[in-house]
Specification:
alpha+beta
Length: about 150
């Protein structure tokens, strides 16, 4: 699981409470000792005055309360007790679930959609075929072009 947090450069919230997502949604607290943190240099231009923190946790699906986490991501735009950064309105975040074995990345960005990426497009062709009507119109042409239907 990888989380990217954008915040003002001197935001003390991340120092006081290092990202609630891991504390709330990781089942085994000792796993938190393996949490990695880094800063992403030059993620923004100087006018944006933002910093990007990247947190990563090597774990398995069974280690995460992923259903509750996905629900919290869907509620982030609303006043809801499960909101992840509810006490830090200056920051934003993106959470990515990586399946290293299958070469997949799943990114639920809000209650309306998600991105699914694969290192091998054939591994997600079934998603295209079964859930084609879910593809947003502005993405459709690009997605169709990525699959070889010749």
């Amino acid at each position: 699981m990888v989380t990217e947090v954008t915040s003002p450069p001197n935001n003390g919230y991340l120092q006081q409470k290092p990202l609630n997502v891991y504390r709330k949604y990781v089942k085994q607290k000792e796993l938190l000792y393996t949490l990695q943190h880094g800063m992403i240099p030059d993620a923004f231009d100087e006018e944006e005055h933002m910093s990007m923190h990247r947190f990563s946790l090597r774990c398995q699906k069974r280690d995460i309360r992923y259903q509750a986490l996905l629900r919290a991501i869907c509620h982030e735009d609303y006043i809801h007790p499960s909101r992840i950064l509810k006490n830090d309105q200056q920051s934003g975040y993106e959470i990515y679930f990586l399946n290293l074995t299958k070469g997949l990345i799943y990114h639920l960005y809000d209650d309306c959609g998600c991105d699914i990426l694969a290192s091998d497009k054939e591994s997600i062709r079934f998603l295209y075929e079964v859930y084609n009507e879910w593809i947003l119109d502005y993405d459709r042409k690009k997605i169709i072009g990525s699959f070889d239907f010749g």
